[in-house]
Amino acid sequence: MTKFGQNILGSLDASVQPITRSVIKEIQRAYYSGKNKIHCVKTQALVSPTGLLIHASKPVERSIHDFQLFKISNLDELIAKENEKCELVLGFNATTLTDSGYQGIMKILPGSITPWKKFRN
Treating both helix axes as pointing N-terminal to C-terminal, what angle do 66-73 and 75-90 enclose, rounded to 10 degrees? Predict the structure, then answer.
């Protein structure tokens, strides 16, 4: 068995980038995030433990949940291929670290680690 951290593939997270508001109402609705109360685009990135960018998604113009962005980005295929390589070379799956916005990723990617979300109240 290896120590935690020796088999980490990378960290996955989504980020919001503010943009200027459009004068066209339909475009305003498409780019507005009610959660952040700004007009923005959202991008997802997978970063290696050394800080190298492995994958960045295209900016998404609508308010979207992190896990939903993961599903439409087809990033699971890239991580699955890397896991297969780790399985052949090391004998176990590589770990992908995510934040609590990716609840349920463990069903799609074996070896993923997601913190528990805080319970209401």
Answer: 80
The predicted structure's pLDDT at residue 22: 79
Q: pLDDT tens for residues 36-57?
A: 788 888 999 999 888 889 889 8
- CB proximity list for 69: less than 8 A, separation 6 or greater: 14, 42, 44, 57, 60
Supply the pTM of this predicted model: 0.75
CA dihedral 85, 87, 114, 56 (to 10 degrees): 0
Calculate the alpha carbon distances from 67 to 71, 86, 94 in Å. 6, 24, 19
Which residues is 12 bridged to in the sheet? 46, 98
